Amino acid sequence: MGAVTASTAVLRRLRPSGGLGDRGTAALYLVVGLVLVGTGVHGPGGPVGGPARTWVHIGLLVLACTALVLKRRAPMVVLGVVTALALASGTVGGSLGLLLVFFDALYTAALLVGRRARAVLTSLVVAVGVAAPTATLVAGQSASQVVGATLQVVALLVTPLWWASDVRTRTELADVESRRADLEREQAALARVHAADAVRIAELDRAAAVREERAAMARDLHDVVAGRLSAIAIHAEAALAGTPDATRDRTALAAVREQAVASLDEMRSMILVLRGAPGATGPTTAPAGLDRLDELLAAARAAGTDVRARVDVDRRPLPAAVDHAAYRIVQEALANAASHGAGGPVALEVAERDARLEIVVTSALARADEAATGPAPRPGLAPSLGTATGLVTMTERARSLGGTLDAGADGPTWRVRAVLPVALPADHVGDRAPGAAPLDTLEAS
Q: Who contacts 443 (Cβ-Cβ below 8 Å, separation ≥6)?
């Protein structure tokens, strides 16, 4: 199919759009032939002869030139007609004008016809080229006459074939070069499109990375600030709820100060990392994990929450992303239980089952109607601490690792259950811990 297309393209380039050139060529041959006949220049058969033969040559020449006008539309037909006229002319001495027309017709046919027709044409030329010198030799002609017959065959038959083959080859090569240049231009255009697509994809990836980083920062800020501020609010509420007591109030103020200092330390560590300060590389930048669960439980109990914990985790160490997410989920769940619960004991269970880490925090509901609406903020707490941001951040952390988180009423209790996969994919980035380096794109935005 590709060869047919290439041949069609070559023939289209070889054929002129109109017949004016062919008519001009035929008229030129007619004029030259008439001049040759008029001046007595004869063909290879000898002198033209008398006036009768002269008009025969002129008539055959006119017919041959008329047929030559159609040489590009029907090259083989025109070649057959001209060949017959040339042979007829040869019987009465021959005409150089007709030989020129024959030369052109043979050249055009060899140039324009298909591969099979060219093979047939070449076979005929070879057969005539061998037969003519052989016949001359068999007829007892001299060596010079044999050589002369051979040269005539080469001049009349071989030369136009060779010339047509050379022109055709050059045209095909030019067509191949043209198509290759077109292909290279198309490939260059396609490469530019691909480059533009790659730039757009990179920009989309960068924007998505920035959004993900900002969401992770929002979760970290919420976890760091909300839990500490909830403890501060609870201690302040306890101190203000009763009658003035210097010892109790001092204890509450000490707890408030401890929570405030801890919150400031964590925020300072996060800000140093985000700003890329030299002090960001230190113990304060290490992401919290379940190895600091005892500190978290102690802080919750110091805030007045009766936490009853059961931890059953065999795998040590856990993947950093899972370890940090589990710590933050426990921290937020305990802070929510302290802020919204009825004040009773809070049950915490952390266990590893079937390559999954399960976290369950259960606390009592303050009122029965909270089973449908969820726990309400405890009186006296700031409104910002009573929003659903904590549940959102916990859910996002679990989902970012391929886990799940469910929160809802379970009878008279409020139950938060998170399931995290212990084994993460090798290419998983996970949720950024406070101590992890931020994306460069975030600073650029």
A: 274, 276
DSSP of 55-100, one letter per residue?
A: HHHHHHHHHHHHHHTTTTTSHHHHHHHHHHHHHHHHTTT--HHHHH
Does pLDDT of 131 surpass 90? no
Bridge partners (DSSP) of residue 363 are 414
Neighbour-count burial of 186, counting CB atoms closer than 10 A to its CB (0-12 exposed, 13-18 middle, 19+ buried): exposed
Instruction: For CATH 3.30.565.10, list the domain ranges present in the chain.
Output: 212-444
The CATH homologous superfamily to which domain 212-444 belongs is Histidine kinase-like ATPase, C-terminal domain (3.30.565.10)
The torsion angles phi and psi of 83, rounded to 5 degrees, stand at -65, -45
Cα–Cα distance for residue pair 331/94, rounded to 1 Å = 115
DSSP SS3 for 16? coil
pLDDT digit string, tens, across residues 268-296: 766 776 666 554 444 444 567 888 888 88
